[in-house]
Structures are given as C-alpha cells and as structure tokens.
Amino acid sequence: MKYVETKSGVHLYELDNFSMEHIINSGQCFRWSRIATNTYAGVAKGHYLEILQSPNEATALFKCSLKEFENLWYDYFDFSRDYQSIVKLVTDSDSFLTSAVRFGSGLRILKQDPWECLVTFIISQQNNIPRITGIIERLCNTFGELKEKNGIKYRCFPTPQQIIDKYHLLGTVGLGYRDKYILAAAIKVSDELYDLEDLRRVDSVTCTNRLKEFYGVGDKVANCISLFGLGHTDAFPIDVWIRRIIDEYYNGEFDMTKYSPYSGIIQQYMFYYGRMIKQ
DNA sequence: GACCAGGTGTCCG
DNA sequence: CGGACACCTGGT
Description:
The chain is an alpha+beta fold. It is 43% helix and 14% strand. The chain contains 12 helices and 8 strands. The protein has helices at residues 20-24, 66-76, 83-87, 95-103, 114-124, 129-143, 160-165, 179-190, 204-211, 219-229, 240-249, 263-278; strands at residues 2-6, 9-13, 32-36, 39-44, 47-53, 60-62, 146-149, 152-155. Strands 1-2-6-5-4-3 form a 6-stranded antiparallel sheet. A two-stranded antiparallel sheet has the order 7-8. α4 crosses α12 (263-278), α5 packs antiparallel against α8 and α5 packs antiparallel against α10. The longest helix has 16 residues, at 263-278. It binds a DNA duplex through α5, α6, α10 and α11.
C-alpha cells in the first residue's frame, strides 16, 4: 500500500487486502457503516472518518489530514501487516479455509480501543448484530462526547468516567441484564491503577485470563477483546458460529496452533465465511 | 405466546 | 469439573 496527501484527503493506492465492505460486515466493529455507494463512515478513538473506496478496492480516499492518517488510521486499519503472507499459511488440503480466505479477501483485524472492545463485546453476548449496533449507538448518544467535523456532528464512545457520572441512565439504552456488567467494568477501568494497555505486553493467554476477571466476561468475550482491542492476533474466540464450523467441517476438532501467532486472523476469515454461507 | 440471539454466572451433582 | 438454567430485550 502506498499513499499520498491530496487536497481532498489522503489517497491510498496499490491497496492489497483492504475491503471496507468486508470489514464492516465481519462483526468485529459496530460503529462503521456504508453511507453511500462505496462510501463508509465511522468513529474510532474520538475521530470521525469518511472513506471512499474504489469499486475494485485497489484505491481509497481517506478524508482526513496526512497527520491524522499517519498518527491514527494507518495503525487502526493495521496497514503495516502483510495479510497475504498470513493467507498463504492456508494449504489446499483445507478446503473450507481455502474458500474462506478467498471469499474474505480484504478483511483486516482493526486495532480498536480496548475499553470500547470490552464494552462492545460484553454487549454482544446472547445478542444479535442489529441490536448490538443499536445499543452502542444509544450508549454513545447518551454518554459520549459530542464532536463535530466539517459540519458533521458525531458522538465519541463514552469513557468509563462518563458512564459512571450518569450511571442512572444506563437503564435507558436497552442493555438488559448486561447493564451491571458495564457499570462494574467502568468502575474497574476508571481506577488510576488499572490500565487495560498493560495487557498488550503480556501473552495472549495471560491477557485473556486477566480479562475474564471482569464481571460478565467469559472465555469468548475475553478472546474477542484480546484480538480486536489488544493486538493479540493469536487469540481465538470460539462462539456458536465457529463451533458450528468446527463441528461441521473439522469433525469437532480444529488445531488453531497451526496458524500461531495468527490464528485469530484465520478465525476471522472462518467466522465471516461460515456465517455468510449459513445465512 | 414461545422461542431465539456472536455467553456468562450460579447452582447442583 | 460438567451440565442445567435463568437472564434483558426485541424480533419472528
């Protein structure tokens, strides 16, 4: 991938493995959407961004400054990683994964904010995607800071303190029984001595175990946070979809260590493809 | 109205 | 330790 600053934003070209369409439909993030043909918008880490992607997905326009692109989006979209080399780990003998990586070409693992991931995937439990998206939107509208960029108003994802300050409104966003998990997480993370960022520097098993200390966070959610929020590409979340795939195509056993330390990335292709063909 | 959805805590053997 | 069961809420 190469990029150059233009008057309308940062122009990306010679793009390899970048598909906003796949990324926003892969269930890893809930604050991006397609706002027009080939046009996407979202909020992450306090910034609003619009992306125009060419139909062949070889180029894209990021409507932001070069500084913002280099300081935030380059890392967020994981552009330093060579996905092609990871995809090559899949051999012809695995026909499911061969189809999955072909189908999901352009998927990437976004490097999201760990606190947002923690909340997002607590909400995701025993829930469906449209409702998850709605809850997060209401959560942001109720608690998040209002900002504006080029006349477009948007809400940031709320900080732990912003949730605590108006915790009596938690019942209004439709969290259901998960509201107590969110409040407990906010209280824990707002502690000066607690820093989720510390979990980047431990191995993925330790990271996942530490995350499971949060009330309402079990193995699946902890692995999602490790993978999507803390850079542990070998975290391998097993949800009902992955379970079904393993049962149906792998006779109940899948050796993810074969793809270490990228098994989490392989998992994303499995999940995306498996869910699509079942729909 | 019963049942389910990208799980988890709790209880019970 | 493994298996049942309840759990908010909004949708079939």
